[in-house]
Amino acid sequence: MIIVLILFALIAGMALPTQFSINAQLRSLVGSPILASTISFIVGSIALLIMTFFNQGIKFNKNWVEAPWWIWTGGLLGAFYVVATIILIPRIGAASTVAFILTGQIIASVLIDHFGLLGVHIQPVNLYKFIGVSLIIFGVIFVQKH
Predict the structure, then answer these.
(1) 105-127, pLDDT tens digit by residue?
(2) Which of 49, 69, 99, 130 is most buried, taking the most CB atoms under 10 A from its CB?
(3) Which domain range does residue 144 map to?
(4) Residue 124 class from Cβ within 10 Å (0-12 exposed, 13-18 middle, 19+ buried)?
(5) For residues 125 and 4, what is the distance between their CA atoms, to the nearest angstrom?
(6) How would residue 95 be classed by pLDDT, with cut points 50, 70 and 90?
């Protein structure tokens, strides 16, 4: 099962620079990173709504109202992420965009795990994680060298 999950993660990772590049072309077509992001989110939202209805439907729950405010900010962060990639791809390229985003992701992920932020189970930084993060950061530096 772990192999399937790893493959799923790799495919998801491969989808991101593809999405970034497609959205950058959409920006060229529509003339605005905000409009391109909006179109991208509308298309994605329609696809997700269709999948939700075929899978389980939507059953509203009173727990939704009682949830912490920050639990609803994922879409805002996603919108920021998509706009950022649309702006960055034409200026610094796909490899640099992904490299810097990967660096930000790994730093944030280690901090979230280490401190147990946002309800994530605590997984302290150890020597192996420190070495791994360092190697990723050095890899990003090497990707930037022409």
Answers:
(1) 999 999 999 999 998 999 999 99
(2) 99
(3) 93-146
(4) exposed
(5) 26
(6) confident
